[in-house]
Amino acid sequence: MSTNKKLVSSLNPLIETRDIAAIKAKTGNIYESIVVASKRANQININLKEELHRKLDDFANHTDTLEEVHENKEQIEISRFYERMANPSLQALGEFMTDKIYYRKKEEEE
Which ranges of the chain have pLDDT less than 70? Predict the structure, then answer.
């Protein structure tokens, strides 16, 4: 997970144009490249959601009173950290372009 955080911190969270020819060159087909990156983006998204919910469960208040709502600075900082992170699809595309994703083609049935 620590290597993932290093990659995440080095990624620009803003969307920028990409070289389609470079993406296509990885697999030979632009659509296959997009599928590989999108499957990895789904994995990243699931992991981030689970991690965020696990961290925020520590701050959960299970009482039914609406009168007492207080701010927790740690909870706010955790939420801000995840908001500043690059989108999972940007993270996946960054991993794909730097050859950090292992993928293989299914053998065609004949």
Answer: 1-10, 61-71, 108-110
